[in-house]
Write a structure and sequence with these properties.
Shape: globular
Oligomer: single chain
Radius of gyration: 18 Å
Number of helices: 9
Largest sheet: 7 strands, mixed
Order of helices and strands: EEEHEHEHHEEEEEHEHHHEHEE
Helix content: 25-40%
Distance between the termini: 8 Å
Number of strands: 14
Length: about 290
């Protein structure tokens, strides 16, 4: 791995974790696997816990954080970026690990739509999204620039892993990103015919649940149409349901959306058990 890069270390109901950064250091979005799994997947891309300079939490469902991973934050003195309303849930589910982070002054609070910095190299804007774990956030992530202008940043990522519908605010904030990492959770017909309880099906299909392939593809198309031509390089389907989706279905929905707007972006689905390819961030680069 050379230069700034984006890698989904794993995404799905069994756990979620994504790396953004470079060989010199970076940060994680969520830490939803045990520490040894995260360490193993970081090693696969040529980095380790020592190079992690922060962890951002999307929400408090336990496939997005693990107590053993929080313990690594304590060991390596890694700041943990959360919303104020995440505090009570974390203190209930992982009181020892969370209290240790408080004692070491490693908790950093963010607010919706107010950008914050990680290691003075990354600017992150949290965007509130609808999900049945309140609050849940998507993020626009920009490579640092001396100019206070989105168009001046070296690169940008839009990341939305769990949401029941796509608010206009998210679409607007994801304009002109190089990478759209978006939940493609389920195929609606598979969901309805899954044999799950109606309560679970209704929850997933609700506006507070998860995005279908169709919803996600429509959002991707909207973002690309309102962005500069060919600025979007990669579309990364996230959080595919093991029972109610197939990678081929998510890929097909995304491809049709890209074809409708004439985009040449590459589709790289995230998987639960292995990292994606390393997606370089910056001009004139392709996956390695």
């Amino acid at each position: 791995m050379t230069g700034d890069s984006f890698v989904v270390l794993g995404s799905g109901s069994s756990g979620n974790c994504t790396f953004v950064g470079s060989p010199q250091g970076g940060f994680l979005i969520d830490c939803g696997f045990d520490d040894r799994i995260i360490a193993s997947r970081l090693a696969m891309i040529g980095t380790n816990w020592h190079h992690i300079q922060g962890v951002i939490l999307t929400h408090t469902h336990t496939d997005h954080w693990k107590a053993l991973a929080l313990n690594q934050l304590k060991i390596h003195k890694i700041p943990f970026y959360i919303h104020a309303l995440h505090r009570s849930r974390l203190s209930q589910l992982a009181p020892e690990e969370y209290d240790d982070l408080i004692a070491l002054n490693l908790i950093r609070e963010f607010q919706a739509l107010i950008p914050f910095q990680i290691a003075q190299r990354f600017s992150v804007t949290p965007i509130l999204v609808p999900h049945d774990c309140d609050p849940t956030f998507a993020f626009r992530i920009n490579g640092a620039s001396s100019k206070n202008d989105d168009d001046a940043f070296r690169w940008s990522i839009g990341y939305a892993s769990d949401l029941g519908q796509v608010p206009d605010e998210l679409l607007n904030h994801f304009t002109n990103v190089q990478i759209i990492a978006m939940e493609f959770n389920h195929d609606e017909q598979m969901q309805k015919q899954s044999g799950r309880t109606w309560e679970l099906i209704r929850r997933v299909l609700s506006d507070q649940g998860h995005l279908s392939n169709t919803q996600a593809a429509n959002a991707v198309e909207t973002i690309i149409r309102q962005s500069r031509p060919h600025v979007v390089r990669y579309v990364v389907p996230l959080h595919l349901s093991r029972d109610c989706n197939r990678e081929s279905l998510a890929r097909d929905a995304a491809r049709k959306a890209l074809d409708r707007c004439g985009s040449r972006a590459e589709i790289i689905p995230a998987r639960p058990d292995t990292p994606t390819v390393v997606m370089p961030l910056g001009e004139g680069l392709s996956p390695n």
